[in-house]
Amino acid sequence: MKLKKPDRIGILPETGFCPGCGHGVVSRLVAEVADELNINEKLVITHDVACGYIGAAMMRFDSIVSAHGRPIPTASGYQKVRPDNIACAYLGDGSAYSIGVAELIHAALRNDNITVIVVNNTVYGMTGGQMAPTSLPGEKTMSSVYGKDPERYGTLNVVDLIGKQKIAYLARGELYDVASTAKTKKMIQKAFENQMEKRGFSLVEVLSPCPTNLHMAPLKAKEYMHTEARNYFPLGEFIDVTKEGSK
């Protein structure tokens, strides 16, 4: 059998992600930025044992598969040992904001010099589509079959969580169309550049469709994230240490 060769940025042409999933696009953006910044040989990506882990098989970068919810402390530990390399934690919203939320908060409090990419699809992906901290009010999931009760369960927003800390960068993008995807790529680039300049902790959240667990066709899932999820997760750059007046 003839093996497929990676393309010029070190990423395989086929993945195991579900059709319409945003993970493949985000993984591609990370790979493109790494190639353009010429950090391929220095980049180490710490993956979670969830949907994002599939990216470890499609990328040709060094990677570490952490315990569930622990990509951020794994990246922090690696960066302490190899401070001149680039450590990127790549994980989903369930991992980052539920089981891994303590690690996220304390990495931000320490202003660890790492890059964090969080793919937010408002639902647990790998485990079957249960309600997540980011699930929207009224959203039906495997564990909220009548819709998420907003009075009992809030909707966690990472900007509220760490938006007042002295970190380097905090931004949120989406994958709705070419223009918004290009903006998201620029956010990821800024995050890596901050780490290269040793400015501290950078987090980019990406609103991403999950057709399988949202039980929608791919285009409808993308529209849902663009029209509904953005009401609770506004897009933009919330902290940028390179801009005057930033926190």
Characterize this entry briefly.
The protein has helices at 23-36, 54-58, 71-81, 93-99, 101-110, 158-162, 178-196, 211-214, 218-232; strands at residues 43-47, 62-65, 86-92, 115-120, 169-174, 202-207, 236-240. The chain has 247 residues and is α/β, with parallel strands linked by helices.
Question: Can you give a write-up of this model?
Answer:
The relative contact order is 0.15. The longest helix is centred in the C-terminal third of the chain and has 19 residues, at 178-196. The termini are far apart. Helix 2 (54-58) links the parallel strand 1 and strand 2. The chain is globular and about 50 Å long. With 247 residues, it is α/β, with parallel strands linked by helices. It has 9 helices and 7 strands; from the N terminus they run αβαβαβααβαβαβααβ. Strands 2-1-3-4-6-5-7 form a 7-stranded mixed beta sheet, sandwiched between helices. Helix 1 packs across helix 7 and helix 4 (93-99) crosses helix 5.
Separate helix tally? 9
Which structural class should the secondary elements be placed in?
A: alpha/beta
Distance between the termini: 54 Å
Dominant shape: globular
Major β-sheet strand ordering:
2-1-3-4-6-5-7
Quick one: biggest sheet? 7 strands, mixed
- Helical amount among residues, as a percent range? 25-40%
